[in-house]
Design brief:
By secondary structure, the protein is an alpha/beta fold. It has helices at 39-48, 56-59, 79-93, 113-120, 122-127, 157-160, 193-199, 202-206, 219-230, 255-270, 297-304, 326-332, 337-345, 356-366, 380-385, 394-405; strands spanning 2-8, 11-17, 22-25, 65-71, 98-104, 129-132, 141-146, 152-156, 164-170, 173-174, 178-179, 233-241, 247-253, 271-273, 277-283, 307-316, 370-374, 389-391, 411-414, 421-423. The two termini are 30 Å apart.
Length: 425
């Protein structure tokens, strides 16, 4: 019997699998990568050697209004480490700079002050100007241009009315944008709901290029890059993280060049051959990404790449914060999987419903695989209404899966499904 720890909320759950059944345990090389220096030193080194731009302190000279875009409570960006360094660099170039930290929420709920203090530290919350993007407040946004998809680009005025626009984030595989980081700070980060919705339309999500690890010809990525260039993002800081959410690499400088360098680094560590299993067990890597059901398709999509035809996926997600969005909740419990997908497929891009893309991706996966959701916070009856099977522990879920696939079923475990890029060879 092998015991495997599955990340879950702020801790982990134990999974017990018979050695005879265990086909593979797939992990990214990020967990074993040794950068050879401290997290702070990695960030300092990246800022001292920016890719494709002058140093940040040089860019800050003469700039009166500076907007620094950072991520919200659903992301593991180590802002408590990075923000003080970025603020120091800006003020080294211009001590009088008027700096606004803008929290990129996309369509997520506003980040609370308590969450800000946990993410940024008390000193920044008490002493810096912080604004939270609220995508449904139309008065906060201005029109910029049309995007390659035909969508209208509306961006938070705080980003449009500054002299210097900077973003920070982290890079990992993303289930329809290819990779996170870089341009995503702008779209969806600080755009209005209409722009985000159309970028995530049924048509865009259905593209064969809108998948994990793919940037070339990806229509969602192309819109995002266009948006970030249109608002003149002049400098980015992106980091790569291991399973403990520690910085193992940092990339600073030009929006596309620095991001591409980070993507190359992450791809080398995350990409691995997919291994087929009758049962595939995964998670969203624990907190903060497993706090609601809306975020959970990210790891389920990784499991899909390793799940044999008719196989079972076991997803471990605390869902401490519930379903994660009222629109998503209404859609995912709307009816059968076929009914949900049929309904979504008729929605034109400009009428895209907020959060429909996660219901769309779940529907795609649920047409092929049964999904068992391990959660101790989300109501199990609600899980059933979402066309999934509830369980309270990985072992309970595995026992259910054996009942469906037989005692000799091959089991593949991907402890952190978001960190892995599984590729069929």
């Amino acid at each position: 019997m092998k015991t495997i720890q599955i990340p879950y909320y702020t801790s982990s759950l134990d999974l017990h699998v018979e050695e005879a059944n265990l086909e593979a345990v797939i992990t990214a090389k990020t967990d074993s990568y040794d950068p050879g220096m401290s997290e702070a030193a990695l960030v300092e080194q990246a800022l001292a050697n920016p890719i494709g731009t002058p140093p940040l302190r040089e860019l800050a000279k003469g700039k009166k209004k500076v907007t620094l875009v950072t991520s919200d409570h659903t992301r593991a960006v180590p802002s408590k480490l990075t923000l003080p360094i970025l603020l120091r660099e800006i003020r080294a170039g211009n001590p009088e700079a008027d700096i606004t930290i803008l929290i990129a929420t996309g369509l997520h709920r506003p980040t609370t002050e308590e969450e800000q203090r946990r993410m940024f530290g008390d000193a920044i919350v008490d002493n810096e100007k912080i604004l939270v993007n609220q995508a449904f407040r139309d008065e906060d946004f201005s029109y910029v241009r049309s995007l390659p998809s035909g969508a209208e680009l509306w961006v938070n005025k705080v980003a449009l009315e500054c002299d210097l626009l900077i973003t920070e984030g982290f890079i990992e595989p993303h289930f329809f944008a290819g990779f996170s980081g870089g341009r995503k700070s702008i779209l969806p980060g600080i755009c209005n709901a209409a722009t985000v919705n159309e970028n995530h339309s049924y048509k865009a999500i259905s593209s064969p290029y809108s998948i994990t690890g793919v940037l070339e010809h990806n229509p969602i990525h192309e819109d995002m890059v266009c948006a970030a260039r249109a608002v003149n993002v002049q400098f980015i800081l992106n980091v790569a993280l291991n399973g403990e959410k520690k910085v193992i690499a940092a990339f600073a400088g030009d929006l596309e060049q620095a991001h591409a360098s980070g993507v190359s680094f992450v791809r080398q560590l995350a990409q691995c051959p997919s291994v087929s299993g009758d049962i595939v067990i995964t998670s969203n890597g624990g907190y903060p990404l497993d706090q609601n059901l809306y975020q959970s398709p990210k790891a389920v999509a990784t499991a899909e790449a390793c799940c044999a035809e008719g196989g079972v996926i076991i997803m471990c997600a605390s869902c401490f914060d519930g379903m994660g969005g009222t629109h998503f909740e209404k859609l995912i419990v709307r009816g059968s999987v076929d009914e949900i997908d049929s309904y979504l497929s008729t929605i034109p891009p400009k009428e895209t419903i907020p959060e429909q893309w996660c219901a769309q991706i779940y529907s795609r996966i649920l047409k092929k695989h049964k999904v068992i959701l391990v959660t101790t916070y989300l109501d199990h009856e609600l899980v059933r209404r979402a066309n999934m099977i509830p369980a309270s522990s990985p072992d309970e879920a595995l026992a259910m899966a054996y009942e469906m696939k037989g005692k000799d079923a091959r089991v593949v475990v991907i402890p952190d499904g978001v960190s892995v890029l599984a590729v069929k060879e």
